[in-house]
């Protein structure tokens, strides 16, 4: 099935999921940029490519990358 064969509701749902995914990654990058080094597990530079991995990267950062 190609993109043009999708139902309008499917296209809208995928569009919304895409926006949420980008927002999730943006929030992770924003948080990373505003945290001190001692509040982040591992080097901050290592989290940049990790956050780029769809859904898993930002979730991993929020779950495992922040010292609590």
TrEMBL record:
Its main location: membrane. Keywords: Cell membrane, Membrane, Transmembrane, Transmembrane helix. InterPro entries: CLS_N (IPR027379). Residues 24-65 form the Cardiolipin synthase N-terminal domain. It is found in: Cell membrane. The chain crosses the membrane at residues 12-33, 45-64. It is a multi-pass membrane protein. This is PLDc N-terminal domain-containing protein. It comes from Microbacterium arthrosphaerae.
């Amino acid at each position: 099935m190609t993109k043009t064969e999708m139902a309008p509701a499917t296209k809208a749902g995928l569009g919304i999921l895409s926006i949420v995914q980008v927002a999730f990654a943006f929030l992770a990058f924003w948080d990373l940029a505003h945290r001190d080094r001692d509040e982040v597990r591992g080097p901050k530079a290592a989290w940049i490519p990790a956050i780029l991995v769809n859904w898993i990267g930002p979730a991993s950062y929020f779950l495992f990358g922040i010292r609590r």
